[in-house]
Write a structure and sequence with these properties.
alpha/beta, two-stranded antiparallel sheet, elongated, Spore Coat Polysaccharide Biosynthesis Protein SpsA, Chain A, single chain, Arc Repressor Mutant, subunit A, 14 helices, 2 domains, 6 strands, 305 residues
Length: 305
């Protein structure tokens, strides 16, 4: 057992976007694959990395999560390992509940500082992934780092592209996560001869973002009156980028007239809504919509021929 590391898993917040699954439970307690819960993912990753001293910090709608932890993880009585709940509490020193993730760790420190540990591994309890934490701990030690953060690198332009379409940071984060999963699952289909990897990723992000707009509805994601119409248009650019047919797309774009090409590029590469295109070109909104529509029709005709 790794006695140098103590794991702290954050029990999650309200999880409103998963409602009604989170009506009676926190997000980490949401069932997955039958009898499992989301919390089992980081716990399993810890156990596979031989990290067997684990605290789960809970607060919101925690009864279901507390019950699952207590009934599922029962360590050998002869082992110092454990998976225990640290519930939010009001004390003479702290008269408020947890105010966030950092505050949860700070207020729970009075309980876990008594345990001998050189390193603390702080994890989210509602993420779905597989990772060998021992490799990250070893890298942290080798580099003599003060803190090490594990994250997926995202190009700022790609992140802004997603948010410019859905207009909500938390939904944009979901879009990027789904895009990375799709890239990972279809990496073998990518060919550099068909176009740059960045264009492929941008197309997938846009395709996912427009799906999110259709799913959640324009009234939820944006106040832009042009976005709803744009979400109904066929995302030819995004789909071809996903499929890796960048060369055919570039050829057909070159056959469009200047105004149509600019509008299609602004809409499906830069992520502009109809209203933003109209403002950018200093043109009426109706004209911008018409240019995009005619450009897409011409583009489709070229690609199909």
């Amino acid at each position: 057992m790794n006695n140098e590391v103590l794991a702290l898993i954050l029990g999650g917040g309200q999880g409103s976007r998963l409602f009604p699954l989170t009506q009676l439970r926190s997000k980490p307690a949401v069932p997955i694959a039958g009898k499992y819960r989301l919390i089992d993912i980081p716990v399993s990753n810890c156990l596979h990395a031989d990290i067997r001293r684990i605290f789960v910090l809970t607060q919101f709608n925690s009864a279901s999560l507390n019950r699952h932890i207590s009934q599922t993880y029962r360590m050998d009585l002869f082992s110092p390992g454990f998976v225990e709940i640290l519930a939010a509490e009001i004390t003479p020193e702290n008269t408020n509940w947890f105010q966030g993730t950092a505050d949860a760790v700070r207020k729970a420190a009075r309980h876990f500082v008594r345990y001998d540990a050189d390193y603390y591994l702080i994890l989210a309890g509602d993420h779905l992934y597989r990772m060998d934490y021992s490799e990250m701990v070893d890298a942290h030690i080798d580099r003599r780092a003060d803190i090490t953060i594990a994250a997926q690198p995202v190009d700022p332009d790609t992140a802004r592209h997603a948010e410019s379409i859905v207009r909500r940071p938390e939904v944009a984060a979901d879009v990027l996560q789904e895009a990375f999963i799709q890239v990972w699952q279809n990496a073998q289909r990518y060919s550099a001869e068909r176009g740059a990897g960045g264009a492929w990723l941008t197309g997938i992000v846009r395709f996912r973002a427009l799906d999110a707009v259709r799913k959640y509805g324009r009234e939820v994601l944006s106040d832009d009156p042009g976005l709803g119409d744009e979400a109904q248009e066929p995302d030819i650019v995004g789909r071809l980028a996903v499929e890796g047919e960048a060369s055919a797309l570039e050829r057909c774009l070159g056959l469009l007239d200047e105004q149509q090409r600019r509008c299609v590029t602004l809409a499906f590469v830069d992520g502009f809504s109809h209203a933003e295109i109209a403002e950018h070109l200093a043109a009426p909104l109706g004209s911008a919509k018409s240019w995009v529509r005619r450009g897409l029709l011409a583009l489709r005709s070229c690609l199909e021929s």
